[in-house]
Amino acid sequence: MPLLTQNQRIERVNSTSELFSTNPQLKESAKQFVSRSPEAVDTKQLLYVQQREFAATTPADNSVSILGSDDATTCHLVVLSHTGSGATCLAHCDGSSTWTEVPLIVNAVTSRSSPAKEGRLELHLVGGFDDDKRTSHSLSLSILAAFQKQKEEIHLETCCITDMNDIIKDGIHRPVVYGIGVNVKTGHVFPASFTCRGPAEELRSARTFSGGQMVEVYDSSRELVKIDPCRWTPNNDMSFWLSQDDETILQICRMKWLFSLISRLVYPSVFVHVSTCRTSSLCPSHQIHHPVSAGSSDRRRAVSRRSAASVPPR
233 near 110, Cβ under 8 Å? Predict the structure, then answer.
């Protein structure tokens, strides 16, 4: 079935600029989206979605009201929802396996939507910028093409990607919107910023940094964050990385895999600190043996199963 905008089929395009020139309503809505200031999201009933993760739930969820993600530069943030059931999925896509990830996102919503519920699937895409290597452009086109191949009719409501999410500061292209949230009770999608990226931030990041593929991190039927078993090999260089200050890491990483896609200058200011904290989970001397520390102060619990864990959101 086709990907639609204002009930009109979106044809395959060769560039994001062609998409916006042939669908001016998408360009206008993107302008409106980037003009909005990011909303600071309260940690209460927030489920943060990290890179190569997706999470889905419904308005009946008593633990999660907001799905959110940020730190997206060339990455794209994808929200798909069903207007009848209210089922909503948010994914943080980095292009690692787009054609297998999009069906997972669609299934996460349709499987939570009763066939008896009238409504339609609505899509919101945010992310990327006009980077020199055109990584964002490639990912934008791949995501659009993957959604066009789905059997369901999907209505593209927000398309704030690449060209329309770009700003030049000090002569350097960078994204305007780095993060978004979606209210699963109302369906409202908005630019967002976050102070909390949990629960179990380090353990979840360890899976991604060790090469893990896109994974669903939330069991909405039990209202638990789930962390499946993952493996990684010890990295003898990690102690060196953890001993360096932020500026040194930025300088070295310019030519390393972590920064191979984009300029270090476009990352939000907290990126190095967050990445260093996440990377510490891979250091042999900093392995996490207990996914979540037990304690009444953070009101979390872990159900361990040979390195797997389930954690309630805050």
Answer: no
Condensed to tens digits (0 to 9), the pLDDT of residues 54-91 reads 999 999 999 999 999 999 999 999 999 999 999 999 99
Decide: 117 and 110 in contact? Cβ < 8 Å.
no
Secondary structure of residue 55 in the 3-state scheme: strand
Q: Which of 94, 112, 98 is nearest to 184 (CA)?
A: 112
Name the DSSP class of 9: E
Q: Kindly write down the DSSP assignment for every residue of 70-98, as one continuous string.
A: ---SSSEEEEEEETTT--EEEEEE-SSSH
Three-state SS string over 123-157 comes to: EEEEECCCCCCCHHHHHHHHHHHHHHCCCCCEEEE
Are the C-beta atoms of residues 34 and 177 closer than 8 Å to each other? yes
Helices 271-279 and 246-253, axial angle in degrees (round to 10): 90
3-state secondary structure of 180: strand
d(CA 67, CA 50): 11
Cα 120 from Cα 252, distance rounded (Å): 47
* Tokens describing residue 162: 């690449």
**What number of helices (H) and strands (E) belong to the chain?**
8, 18
Model pLDDT for residues 104-134, shown as the tens digit of each residue: 999 999 999 987 678 999 999 999 999 999 9
| Residue 211 to residues 204, 231, 232, 234, Cα–Cα distance (Å) | 12, 9, 8, 13
Two structure tokens written together for 208: 């991604």
Please give the single-letter amino acid code of residue 226.
K
Q: Residue 72 has which token pair?
A: 């997206």
* Orientation angle between helical segments 271-279 and 201-209, nearest 10 degrees: 80
- State how far the alpha carbon of 32 is from the alpha carbons of 28, 39, 102, 160, 165, in Å: 6, 15, 26, 9, 11
224 φ, ψ (degrees, to nearest 5): -135, 135
